[in-house]
Amino acid sequence: MSDPQPGKLFIGGLNWDTTTEKLEERFAEYGTVVDCVIMKDKFTNQPRGFGFVTLEDPAVAERLAAER
Fold first, then answer.
1. pLDDT of 25-68, one tens digit each?
2. Which long-range contacts (CB under 8 A, 24 or more apart) does 31-37 make?
3. pTM for this model (two decimals)
4. Of 54, 13, 59, nearest to 37 (Cα)?
5. Within 13 A of 50's CA, how many CA atoms are on the CB side?
């Protein structure tokens, strides 16, 4: 079965002060970021402590996930 979104990483344990810009900047060190989102509560709009980063090169994402 193929990965529906190659290069997409789950990022957990985020500090509530983390912004999308900071998260994208951090992962841009490894390659081109095509998408970056921090999940928020739909009622309070407060960050939920996790998000997703999609890197252009799926091999880089796989390497980062393996290093975890």
1. 999 999 999 999 999 999 999 999 999 999 999 999 999 999 87
2. 31/55, 31/56, 31/57, 31/60, 32/56, 32/57, 34/7, 35/8
3. 0.88
4. 54
5. 4
